[in-house]
Amino acid sequence: MTSLPTSRYVSLTTFRRTGEAVPTPVWAAPVGPRPEARSERARREGDEVLSLVVWTRADSGKVKRLRHTSRVTVAPCDMRGRLEGPAVDGLAEFLEPSEWPGARAALARRYGWQWRITYGTSRIAARFTHRGRERQTMIRITPAARQ
């Protein structure tokens, strides 16, 4: 199984209902494998399936597109979205709020002070602008199984 990119930025491509691809550069942090996401071959060979977590606004276009289809591609890129390697097919799913602490910890390990400032600022802004509603969401991306 092809592993997901672990570059500082990844180009997350989601798909419109028309099939048109919409790439977006995002921060993504690697997290450990989910037992049910591991293929039988990976379990036999001891390979770990790497997942990525992405933090984004709950009302963003990518979230709306993911509600339609969980199919994505991810590729290493620079901060402006210029690709730096091949794309890998993946599947995206929204994390349950109970899984967010682990995802936030992975992002904090990956991005350090930049994550803490960005996340902290977002939380402060949300207190004033979105009382009682969650403004952000977390997404897990796993490699798509090959047929």
Automatic annotation (TrEMBL):
MF-aspect GO terms: coenzyme F420 binding; oxidoreductase activity, acting on the CH-CH group of donors
Domain of life: Bacteria
Keyword field contains Oxidoreductase: yes
Alphabetized UniProt keyword annotations: Oxidoreductase
Keyword Oxidoreductase set for record: yes
Example of a GO cellular component annotation carried by this entry: cytosol
UniProt-recorded name of the protein: Pyridoxamine 5'-phosphate oxidase putative domain-containing protein
Organism per entry: Modestobacter caceresii
